[in-house]
Each structure stands twice: as C-alpha cells, then as structure tokens.
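User: I'll paste a sequence; please echo it back and then give the predicted structure.

Assistant: Echoing your sequence first, then the prediction.
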Amino acid sequence: MDSKEIDLHKFDNIRPLANGEVKHAIEELVANEDLIEALRYIKPDLNADKFIAHMRTCKTKEEFKSVMAYETVMTIAKKTTFSLTISGRSRLPEGNPACTFISNHRDIVLDPAFLNVMLYDVGYGMTQIAIGDNLLIKPWIETVVRLNNAFIVKRGVSGRQQLEASITLSRYIHHAIKETRESIWIAQREGRAKDSNDKTQTSILKMLNMGGDSKDILANIMSLNIVPISISYEFDPCDFLKAQEFQLKRDNPEFVKSKRDDLLAMETGILNNKGRVHFTIGTPVNNALSCLDHSLEKTELYNAIASTIDREIYTHYRFYPCNYVAYDMITGTKRFADMYSLKDKNFFEEYLQNQLDKIVIPGKDEAFLRHKILEMYTNPLRNYLNV
C-alpha cells in the first residue's frame, strides 16, 4: 500500500478515494452521461470519446488532479477571468510541511480549485479539499470530488450526530496533516459569507481542536500548521443571487435554499465573469498563536485565534476599482475618488444595474438589493481599514 494511502475504513464516509479505487470510480463516471453533459457547459466543443480515453489513462488521484482536474480548472479560468494570480509564496513554511490552508470563501467550487492549480504551478502540490455534503447533489458529483481528493463535511445533522460528525472530521484532518502529510484547504466558516464580511467562525476552530492529541487547545490548533489565504475576486458572479437570498430571508425568516438553488449558484459561479482573481498566501499563524495566553477562558481563546487568522486575511486582500467605487457609493463620500476613474465608476454602476436586473422575485426591493450588493464589494475594504 502506498505510504500516503489511508485506512480505508476509519473514515470511509468522508475520505477521498484511495488510489486503489480510482479505476472503478473512473469507469463509473464514463458510464454516466451527466458528467459529459456538465463538461460541455464549460467546453462546448468537447470530444467525449477523446476525453473519456484521456480520463482512463489516470491510475492515481495525483494523475487525475494534475491532468483532468487541472485542465478543466484552467479552461474555466481562461474563459471566465481576466487574470488568475497568486502571491506570498515566500511565506510558505520552509521544507513544504503539510499545512491547513484557511481562507475566506467567495465561490462554492472554484476557491479551492483555483488555489490548487496555482499551488501546483509553483511546485507546492495540491491540497485535500473540505466540501459540504449539501453540494453533492448528484452521485457523480460526489465521485468526482472524492476522486479529486476532497473530503466530505457532513451538514444537516443535529445533536449527537453533529458532534460525532465533527469529531470524525477533525480526526481526519489531523490524520491528513500528521500521518499522510497532505495539506488541506478549509473555509473559515460554514458556507460563504454572503455579504463578504469575512470572519472566522469559532465553531470551525472548535471542530479542529476535537481531533488533537492534547488537552491544550493551542497545541492542537498549532499542530495543524494553519496558513491563512486571502481571496479577492474583482466581480462575484453570484452577487445578485446572494442579494436575492438576503431579501427572501428578510421577507420570510423560514426561507431555506433548495438543492436547485445550490446547483444554480455552482453553475453561475463557474460559468460567469469574475474579472481579476487573486490569492495571497498569508503568514503562518503559529508564531502569533504562541504568544497568546494559554490561561484565557476557552471562548476568549477561540476568539483570539479567530482574530489572528482574520487579521492575516484582511491585511492581504487585493482591491479593485469596484471596491473603492462601492465604498464611496454606500457611504456617500469621495474618500477613495483618487483610486478610480470616471470610466471605472460608470462601468461599475452599469454592472450593478445589470446584476440587479437579473433578480426576479415577488415584491422586489431594488433599494435593499442594491445596498446588499454594494456591501459585498465594500466590506473587504472596511475590514482592511479596521485592521
């Protein structure tokens, strides 16, 4: 057995596929026409026979990730971004130890996918990816993500089941970092921050602590080698869907998204324009965490750890004219007027109206929706200024 293969039973419900399962998984996929149909949205001229033959040449997850997944993600990037860049490589820990990359979260699918192809390009290696089971809408999607080295975060369970799921997830993450020595990516919160007010949830940190070997919270968290990542999209294709959800929840507190809503968000995020996209690798937080007071009450300690991660994310945002325009629009000031031109302002105002026009719901409150979209482009700048 490969030294990086994991116990096939301990984490069966959530783990990525093992290399010994790759061949069977690929045969499952090629027998499912839904995969080819989905790929044609990304690449209309796809030659299905050639693609299937290419996929069958992959014998390991590494081959699948570095060939099939890489090519698919780069096709998306070329079609839907003006640029896809990464900085901060020099901040990666020396010797390439396994790290837990924690980032803010903009796109359901593409945040970790973009990160992986860029890490691969700089020679770091692709990470394992945490993905919520609410997104595994069809069986073939689960096969693809597990083949692509994703592990599953159980959601929609409660009480004792939630506790057990959190413990298992945490133990798996510690196992991946310490035993198989593979880096992982996880978002700083469950789901995306719909208003882009990115804050690390202490519930994520409590989960990460559960699988540690020590009774010391800081020791358990530090053993995961957390490296914050700051993600900056010039344009969020799903901004209008997020604004729409805000109004639907405002008007009906019982509103819950459907699987169809999740699928639409995935499709919209993947297929539409994002402008410039930049990832910044922040400073590993262990040095900062080692300075925290171990005697802090648990709640205070978790809050301090979250704040440490947040500062790194806020400090390394990259801003675009739309962020400065949105800030001035929402505050009614000209504080950042020197950061954009009249052309930039007119472009963003036209973009904003076009996104608003896509929203078709009963009792559409355009002033509210406009404000929510402006918040999405303003909040990262606000957080940066507060730091």
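The two ends are 48 Å apart (CA to CA). The first helix runs from residue 22 to 30.
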